[in-house]
Specification:
This protein has eight helices and ten strands. It is α/β, with parallel strands linked by helices. Strands 1, 2, 3, 4, 5, 6, 7, 8, 9 and 10 form a ten-stranded mixed beta sheet that branches. α1 links the parallel β1 and β2. The longest helix is centred in the N-terminal third of the chain and has 11 residues.
Length: about 230
């Protein structure tokens, strides 16, 4: 009997996220598109995140849990990439959540292209003095250069959570997140991946709800490729 390979591998890096982790995971499990595996990477959490992951994995066979010493978000995502079995790879952060059609909108649009990009909903309600919610979305199909123009203008070049990636490209070209970077590391990963793409697509759908953090408190130091 052959092992079924899922359409998607969804990678979630986790560090001390017990307060929001259930909502994140449940939003993925509640997708209208069911053919996926969910890789939960516990990056040395010191709260009860590990317990939450293990308990949910007992109840749903699509969940695979990996526990590792703390090494940062890049190293956690790389553990997911090393163990992904799906044809396409998606990402979600543990303090965010996804809308029910997130995966289905990807699946309906990846034929004939090397990468699909969705819109993103920015939620600033957790920031002091701000309660704004704004969607960033556009529609496009064509070459990488023109897609990048649009992404740079909107400021969403990174945000891997709004994109799906061919696993075959990531494996063939050994594309990984750079451990040296803790800030805009997703942007560096996206640019490396796009180096090997011929045709890309952006769809006029929003599937990801992003909780905008207080960057001044989240990052004591910002190491990124631009430095």
């Amino acid at each position: 009997m052959s092992l079924h390979l899922p359409t998607f591998s969804i990678i979630v890096p986790i560090y001390n996220s017990e307060h929001c982790l259930f909502q994140c995971i449940q939003s993925i499990l509640n997708q209208t598109f069911h053919d996926f595996e969910l890789l939960l990477i516990n990056d040395g959490s010191q709260d009860d995140s590990a317990m939450v992951c293990d308990k949910l994995a007992e109840d749903d066979s699509r969940i695979r849990v990996f526990h590792k010493p703390n090494g940062g978000v890049s190293s956690a995502r790389n553990v997911g990439l090393d163990n992904a079995r799906g044809q396409w790879i998606g990402f979600c952060d543990s303090d965010d959540w996804v809308l029910p059609e997130w995966l289905n909108d990807f699946a309906q649009n990846f034929s004939g292209v090397d990468r699909v990009c969705q819109g993103i909903r920015f939620d600033r309600s957790c920031l002091s003095g701000s309660n704004g919610i704004k969607d960033f979305v556009f529609e496009y199909e064509g070459t990488v250069s023109q897609l990048l123009d649009r992404l740079f203008v909107l400021g969403i070049v990174g945000y891997t959570m709004t994109k799906c990636f061919r696993t075959s490209f990531i494996s063939e070209y050994n594309i990984r997140f750079d451990h040296r970077f803790n800030f805009r590391e997703d942007e560096e990963f996206v640019l490396k991946y796009l180096t090997y793409c011929s045709k890309v697509r952006a769809i006029n759908k929003v599937g990801y709800h992003y909780i905008v953090p207080d960057f001044s408190s989240k990052y004591r130091t910002e190491n990124n490729m631009y430095d």
